[in-house]
Amino acid sequence: MATLDPRIDDYIANSSDFARPILTHLREIIHAACPEAEETIKWSMPHFMYKGILCNVAAFKAHCAMGFWHGSLLFPDVEKSAMGHLGKITSLKDLPSKKELAGYVKKAVQLADEGVKVESKPKAAPKPLVVPEYFEAALKADKAALKVFDAGSISFKREYVMWLEDAKTEVTRNKRMAQAIEWLAEGKARNWKYEKC
Q: What pTM does this model have?
């Protein structure tokens, strides 16, 4: 028999009225399909472990969710979202049958037993930084500011560019640009006020 984690009992008890029967039902099915599953809390939600993460459940304001670690293999046509792999679950009627749910859990156990790894999606290349001409001209007019800007990381530069580009009016943009040049000449990052000393 599975060992139940009292933190998950608390999680269920503190969930909304609609969520408690859903979470209890999912928990029972997971343990029936994988009696060796161990319970824990990760990222503030119930997780069920079997040779790594098997699956998780969560309750939100108006729906519940269930996600599988090997979800991309179990549900190849479903993109995992905030609603997990089973979509928004607002009542027990939104769930597949017990048999179908148990089948998903058993397939996840089989994948874990086989040591199947979940491949992560390759990260998209970051967008190139485009420094507006008006800012380039202002930087070239102040050698100290230009030197600091050129030496900064891409995120350092991007913060200044985004701040200028987000200005709603030319007057605001020009005020920000003058401030940016001053701060850069002093060697300061855009959000220097919030940096730890």
A: 0.61
Among 61, 63, 66, residue whose Cα is nearest residue 48: 66
DSSP string, 72-86: HHH-TT---BTTBTS
DSSP β-bridge partners for residue 57: 66
Per-residue pLDDT tens digits for 56-74: 999 999 999 998 888 878 7
Please report, for the chain, the start and end positions of each structural domain, with discontinuous segments joined by +: 6-113, 133-194
Partners of 165 in beta bridges: none
The structure tokens listed for 39 are: 């319970």
CATH 3.40.50.300, domain 6-113, yes or no: no
Q: Cα(115)–Cα(25) distance, rounded to whole angstroms?
A: 28
- Provide long-range contacts, Cβ within 8 A and 24+ apart, for 99-105: 101/26, 101/29, 101/33, 102/29, 102/32, 102/33, 103/33, 104/68, 104/74, 105/29, 105/30, 105/33, 105/34, 105/54, 105/55
Residue 197's pLDDT band, with cuts at 50, 70 and 90, is low
Question: Within 10 Å of residue 149's Cβ, how many Cβ atoms?
Answer: 21
Q: How far is CA 191 from CA 9, 153, 194, in A?
A: 43, 14, 6
How far does CA 139 lie from the centroid of its chain? 36
In this structure, are residues 37 and 51 in contact, taking their beta carbons and an 8 Å threshold?
Answer: no
Q: 123-126: which pairs have CB atoms within 8 A and are 24 or more residues apart?
A: 126/154
